[in-house]
Amino acid sequence: MNPMVTVNIDGQDIRVEPGSNVLEAAERLGVMVPRYCYHPGLSVAGSCRMCAVEIEGMPKLQISCHTRVRDGMKVSTDSEPVVRMRQAMLEFLLVNHPLDCPVCDQSGECDLQNFYMEHGLHESRVFEDKIKRKKAFPIGPHVILDQERCILCTRCVRFCEEVSESHELGFWIGATGRSSTCFQAGSWTTTTRATSSTSVRWGR
Length: 204
Ligand code: SF4
Ligand code: FES
Fold this sequence. Notes:
globular
């Protein structure tokens, strides 16, 4: 059996199994690293960059969901560069996100809202009009898609590829930019991060 490794996160030591990622090690310590695309039951996409942390000896911030622990590693989840990175990523994710929280069925249980309140800039620097996409677009008998709310985390896509193995979903580059589409109702809607794909019972 491989020996456990000791990692220092925000000044606290923790012993974890080799092969664990930094995000999981932090969670074991009770340190919540913001994340959107990571899900423990799915492969790592590393696309949202929200889980970036600073690791001693590394020249750039690293995404904690895709970085394996090493013995003696020193990690900071709340240094100034990490905080600035989170603010920048939230600003980027929200540039075209609709401000329809008052009528959104995920409001109050939304990690976009939660992380924005905790880490966001809180003063918009964007004055351009937001790009409009399809709202309440039916993609089957049970699911509607709000393309404006999708943050392209790909959790729904990976669920259909890796769990249901039904491969209904995908991303493509179209004339108006990247979009997602969904063709299956069911438990995959519970893997989503924003309320972009919703049961038709709640979405209208
Ligand atoms: S529809 Fe939801 S789960 Fe799928 S990529 Fe968009 S935000 Fe992520
Ligand atoms: S959670 Fe790590 S890159 Fe998205």
